Amino acid sequence: MAETKEIAEGMRKLLPIVLVLFASNAFGESIADLRQKAAAGDAEAQTTLGVRYANGRGVRKNYKEAVKWYHKAAEQGDAAGQYNLGLMYRIGRGVPKDYVAAYAWYRLAAYSGFKGGSKSRETIAKEMTPEQFAEAQELSKELLKKIEADKKK
Fold first, then answer.
1. What pLDDT sits at residue 11?
2. What b/e readout covers 7-36, taking b as 16+ CB neighbours within 10 angstroms?
3. Distances from the Cα of 2 to the Cαs of 5, 6, 8, 9, 12, in angstroms?
4. Tell me: the pLDDT tens digits for 103-148?
5. How far apart are the first and last CA of the chain?
């Protein structure tokens, strides 16, 4: 009887893992395909790969790896990558908590048309000092200039 309970418990623990693996292959691109596209500079694939790492979907959860891919996408002007990078800075996952960087990336996400960017930017602004706010404004301007210059290359 105890052996049957152990087997049942083991199956219960494995089921979520099996479902994640199935979903990652059946309802989206494989991790290998995403990595290949992301490495080739595909911003959408970079953001998607970041999401997979942040949520542990098809890969082991790794916030630093998620930030790496969000950053690559964000620097190319990908609005979702910018928003997700802002979120990681806001909550301190994979990077130290940094409201200045979070605000700057949220601001760029809003500028790029990401719907949640404006609201998140406004929310975090309420938690910042005037000095942080001014610094975040400058940082977002610098980041935007760099992104636009890189697009012209």
1. 47
2. eeeeeeeeeeeeebeeebeeeebebeebbe
3. 5, 6, 10, 10, 15
4. 999 999 999 999 999 999 999 999 999 999 999 999 999 999 999 9
5. 68
**Residue from 27, 74, 18 nearest 50 by CA:** 74
CB 72 within 8 A of CB 90: no
**Token digits for 131?**
């000095």
> In whole angstroms, what is the distance from residue 91 CA to residue 113 CA?
22
Measured CA to CA, the distance from residue 77 to residue 5 in angstroms comes to 52
14 band by pLDDT with thresholds 50, 70 and 90? very low
Distant-in-sequence, close-in-space partners of 82: CB < 8 Å, separation ≥ 6: 73, 74, 105, 106, 108, 109, 112, 114, 117
3-class DSSP assignment, residue 41: coil
- For the cut 60, the answer to whether the pLDDT of residue 149 exceeds it is yes
Q: How many residues are present in the chain?
A: 153
Mean pLDDT of 22-35: 68
